[in-house]
Amino acid sequence: MPEKFLPDAIHGTDFIRWLRTRLKSPLPGFSPEGRFSPRPVRGRNYAEPLAQPKPAAVLLLLYPREATWHIPFVVRPWTMPTHAGQIGLPGGALLPNEAPEVGALREYREELGADPEQVELLGSLTPIHVHSSGYRIDPWLGVAFQTPAFSIDTHEVAGLLEIPLAHLMDRRNFGSQQRTHRGETYESPAFSFENHQIWGATCAILGELILLAEEYLTQTGRPSLGE
User: How far apart are CA 160 and CA 32, in angstroms?
Assistant: First the structure.
């Protein structure tokens, strides 16, 4: 076991053990009325399946740094044809006949240069359907009990953000921003970290983990952070 964790409900291994079991039951999923969904939702309903989706997968990884759980995010280069400059999770399109969990770990290794053998996959979160790009994204939740040695691929990743889970759970770091797509202005929920905004599909995927963590805090008798 690595460094000693801080004495907080979400910063110990009990939370990980709880997730192992909880992911085997029905998940919160995505609700058009939920706080992580864009408004108006038309054309942006992450729960509505696509007719011919392109398969993709991402890895949502928990790992210890300074005795608290962190999550790695990638900053996409501005030169990319899609998602340029956005904050996302390591991941991407699947290879032919590639299982989502295999693709998520492959992309993690390719983009962040870390060893996937150190990752324990806890289970899958709810698939998300991104109508603007045509992708069905399968998010996989994993844990590493040692801090990974990251070495980013600068062709695919402009930067790495290591964000504490507690920061993302603090409701003072969550809000919304106005965005415009195809001439329509809408409210996009977003997490803030330093001068960055995490919005769109990544925000929705992360939101499901936040809902699970809040459920865990409720079960342990503690209020959500920032309340």
Answer: 30
